[in-house]
Write the structure tokens for this entry.
Amino acid sequence: MATGVTESDFDSFYRTHYSDVHRFVFQFVQNASLADELTQDAFLKAYEARGSFRGDAPERIWLFRIARNVCLDYLRSPRSRAAKVTSLEHAGVEGQEPAAESASIAGKEPPSSVEQAARQAEMTDCVQQFVLSLPETLRTPLILHDMQGFTNAQIAQVLGCSLEAAKMRLHRARASLRKLMEERCDLFHDERNVLSCLPVAPNQTRQARSGLAALEEASAP
């Protein structure tokens, strides 16, 4: 998108990037109607700021910076504090998007039985809630890299930090997610060798399963 774009140029920009931005925002807030609202806010801000775009970064990076700031504004709002998730045990989120977003964790093959579908759905809900519980400085690089396919350099551009800082945040995010899953989930491989999850009560003692190592390997750069 060049400087001084016309309204028709922006319409094309909107159509090109809407799906990616909406997916990012949804993964950030885990609420479909709120994601719709914040995505529209992000594009409105981008439209208002379109004349200031100078091409210093790719348009997708510029747009994700705006989307992230919209999400941060929401997180700082009284509305967000009132709606804050208080328990990781409540896995189901109303309006949640399909489990495909967690394909790198739950596997890309279609489940061959209702039972497998249920386990993979639980894994998806479980992981999404854990990601939601991470501080924003860790949540954003994890979403951008593992769910949006951004490189470390692109993450650094979105966050406005150094490449090394982006790498460190991503490493810390994965370590934090792994710790949460060790404490709250019982991970195992099913008969198709698909990593699956069964939530466990916080006070339930158990032995860590070999799936934890597989999760770490799957998320490695």
The mean pLDDT is 74. The longest strand covers residues 185-189. Residues 103-221 form a domain with the Arc Repressor Mutant, subunit A fold (CATH 1.10.10.10). The chain has two domains: 1-82, 103-221.
